[in-house]
Write a structure and sequence with these properties.
- The protein is an alpha/beta fold.
- Helix content is 42%, strand content 15%.
- α6 links the parallel β4 and β5.
- α4 packs parallel to α5 and α11 packs across α12.
- The structure holds zinc ion.
């Protein structure tokens, strides 16, 4: 973000990015995709939050096969002003936005108090709530995502496998763990793919989905993630596809707002 040599991004780039993802997802035979969209870079480069949301909406709305829906990504290092802007925009959030996500450095910003108002308000109007927790952060971060932010889905949640009581909570409350195998490996969240704890979630009866997370960096595709998951879980690719289809009920979809 503070790299002064980087090329500024514009609203056109946002549109292009979404359309490229759509083409890529179509190519991978995906029938519905949720895309985490972070306004931060665009706001730094001069777009207003309103413009960001409208451009993303106008781009996503006509797209079909797959439909693309947005999750508003809020970074843990966000300013109070930005969070207030997000909260203020919730009521008129374009209908293609179906959820909110908290992401960023869990170790430096473990405290989620500042995000409670936004996430509570989002949930109250029917938006889905997902939180990146336990990727590089500790167990407490996963508990906080559930207890303080009301997460219905968790990004990564790797740390959760160290706690039987937390695993029980995820299973009992049917919290979906969004698993991103290649991303975890590439970013070093797990030392090797064989050490990935997806099997623990799966065996504990916790719903899991498979995701590409950072396809631009990892060059991974959804079919590649599903094939990798099949290997780790000792299932056939068809069985993993069935697992993925089975968690379709966790998609945030367009809330009735
Ligand atoms: Zn992620």
């Amino acid at each position: 973000m503070r790299n002064r040599t980087r090329v500024p991004v514009t609203g056109d780039d946002l549109g292009t990015f979404i359309r490229e993802i759509h083409a890529e997802q179509r190519h991978e035979h995906v029938d519905y995709a949720e895309l985490r969209l972070s306004p931060r870079r665009f706001l730094v480069d001069g777009l207003s939050l309103e413009e960001f949301l409208q451009i993303a909406h106008a781009t996503m709305q006509p797209l079909e096969s797959p439909a693309i829906r947005g999750i508003l990504l809020v970074n843990r290092d966000s300013t109070r002003d930005f969070l207030e802007q997000c909260t203020a925009h919730l009521d008129d959030l374009p209908a293609t936005f179906v959820g909110v996500d908290l992401a960023g450095d869990e170790s430096r910003y473990p405290d989620v108090t500042a995000f409670r108002d936004l996430f509570t308000a989002a949930k109250a109007i029917g938006l889905g709530v997902t939180v990146h927790a336990g990727e590089f952060g500790d167990l407490d971060g996963v508990w906080r995502a559930l207890d303080e932010l009301g997460a219905q889905r968790l990004g990564h949640a790797l740390a959760a496998v160290r706690s039987p009581s937390l695993l029980k909570r995820l299973r009992d409350d049917k919290v979906l763990v969004e698993v991103s195998l290649s991303s975890n490996l590439m970013l070093g969240a797990v030392a090797s793919v064989a050490l990935h704890p997806v099997r623990v979630f799966f065996d504990a009866g916790i719903p899991v989905s498979f995701n590409t997370d950072i396809p631009i960096e990892s060059r991974s595709t959804l079919p590649a993630e599903l094939a990798l998951a099949a290997r780790l879980l000792g299932l056939t690719t068809e069985e993993v596809v069935a697992v993925q289809r089975g968690v379709a009920r966790f998609v945030f979809r367009t809330a009735e707002r």
